[in-house]
Design a protein that fits this description.
alpha/beta; Rossmann fold
Length: 263
């Protein structure tokens, strides 16, 4: 059991983000979740850095993602000047998108999520934002194709680690999902360029930046990404080698701002 002083400190920290009532409810639900099947209890919580309440499936990785976005505030260091369009790749249940929509009231978000369970919750979490939010049940890839969703093969195997892969034989595997390349996704945003591209796609960045990135990177002003391994890091920075940008990092995020071709 953790030190009780640590527990009190964490409770205070959570109360500053979601209020004492919600923090206590969340703590009680944490204890209950140990004896529940994943996702059988769904909480509605109102973080102070979200305009609307969000849903959380207790006993799932929603809990960790909620902590990263609303408690640790990992996207708070982003310095954006009135962004209009944000593309969220690997939106999970929509917490980052909800944060962006709340922090930047003049922006629109296109959220892309391949996992059907996460996608369903994402739709519910972003519905209160109306036409400012569009959610796609799809994956980001290097080309337009169909992909297969894989669960349980990466990291802790929970909802936030679902991966996609190419079908072993085209058209011969069931349950495939649509995959979009970046030019197609940017076109869906109906803008010439993206103010922020957020990427957390569980190693699919290896494919995304391996080829053809020069076709769309000039249309991205700012980018934040979670890289999943040294090979992903190598491919990513190689793709950006022709560009100048302001580089920073925080937690698991790499942030590249003011991206433009080198002089």
């Amino acid at each position: 059991m953790r030190n009780p002083f640590y527990q009190i400190a964490m409770l205070r920290r959570y109360s500053r983000a979601i209020g004492w009532t919600a923090a206590l409810l969340l703590r009680l639900s944490d204890l209950r979740a140990r004896n529940l099947s994943e996702g059988t209890v769904c909480l509605k919580l109102k973080p102070i850095n979200s305009t609307h309440p969000v849903l959380m499936r207790m006993g799932t990785s929603d809990r960790q993602v909620f902590g990263q976005v609303f408690i640790e505030r990992e996207y708070e260091t982003l310095e954006l000047d009135h962004p209009k369009t944000i593309l969220d790749l690997g939106a999970n249940v929509g917490y980052a998108s909800a944060y962006f929509l709340s922090r930047f009231p003049g922006c629109k978000v296109v959220a892309v999520e391949p996992d059907p369970g996460n996608y369903a919750v994402c739709c519910r979490n972003l519905a209160p934002f109306g036409e400012r939010a569009k959610v796609l049940h799809a994956a980001a890839w290097v080309e337009r194709t169909r992909l297969v969703l894989e669960r349980g093969a990466f990291r802790d195997g929970r909802d936030w680690t679902a991966q996609v892969r190419e079908a072993s034989v085209a058209g011969q595997e069931s349950g495939t999902i649509e995959a979009y390349d970046l030019p197609s996704l940017i076109s869906l945003c109906k803008v010439p360029e993206i103010d922020l591209l957020k990427i957390d796609i569980e190693r699919s960045e290896l494919e995304l930046f391996s080829r053809n990135s020069e076709n769309w990177l000039p249309r991205v002003r700012n980018l934040c990404i979670e890289l999943h391994g040294a090979d992903c890091e190598e491919v990513f920075f190689r793709a950006l080698s022709r560009f100048s940008y302001d580089l920073s990092s925080g937690g698991d995020l790499i942030v590249c701002q003011n991206i433009h071709f080198r002089d």
